[in-house]
Amino acid sequence: MNKRELPPITMNVPFGGSSAEKTAIGENVRPWHLHAAHPTLPLPCEVLVQSLRTGKTVKVRVNDRGPFIKNRIIDLSEEAAERLDMKHHGLDKVRITVLSVGDGKWKKEAPPCATPA
After folding, report:
1. Is the model's pLDDT at 15 over the cut of 60?
2. pTM of the full predicted structure?
3. How many CA atoms lie within 13 A of 108 on its CB side?
4. Cα end-to-end span (Å), the chain
5. Sign of the C-alpha dihedral, residues 112, 71, 40, 57?
6. CA 37 to chain centre
7. Which of 31, 45, 72, 109 could anchor a disulfide with 101, C-beta 3.0 to 4.6 Å?
8. Which residues lie closer than 8 Å to 109 by C-beta, 6 or more apart?
9. Cα 48 off chain centre by
10. pLDDT tens per residue across span 78-109
11. Angle at Cα 109 formed by Cα 96 and Cα 107, nearest 5°?
12. Contacts for 83-90 with beta carbons within 8 Å, 24 or more apart?
């Protein structure tokens, strides 16, 4: 793989149900945006989320913290969950691949993942 891949985990939907909410970095929360919350990744960053059930992928901007429930690693916006065909499932197993970290002139592409020999 070219980017940094995290192990498969469980995600929760939806994130950002209220348009009055703000993210951890002060951005407006909109259910139709492709954004997510993660407990430890640098903010902001872009990740590719793949549903292990459907195989579908979506690129999202991580701009908030959460979820804070054991065995859950990412919350997706309604739109992101819809694109992965998991909006009505609530929880699903996903694979997360970090694509880049930062914004503007501070944006850095994720380093290539080492492949075992």
Report:
1. no
2. 0.76
3. 8
4. 13
5. positive
6. 6
7. 45
8. 3, 99, 100
9. 7
10. 899 999 998 888 789 999 999 999 887 777 88
11. 110
12. 83/34, 83/56, 83/58, 84/49, 84/50, 84/51, 84/54, 84/56, 84/57, 84/58, 85/51, 85/54, 85/56, 86/11, 86/13, 86/51, 86/53, 86/54, 87/13, 87/14, 89/13, 89/53, 90/12, 90/13
Q: How many other CB atoms are there within 10 angstroms of residue 112's CB atom?
A: 10
Take residue 76 and report the two structure tokens written for it.
């997706």
d(CA 89, CA 52): 13
Question: What phi, psi does 8 have (nearest 5°)?
Answer: -60, 140
For 25-61, write each residue's pLDDT tens digit: 888 888 788 999 999 999 999 999 999 999 999 999 9
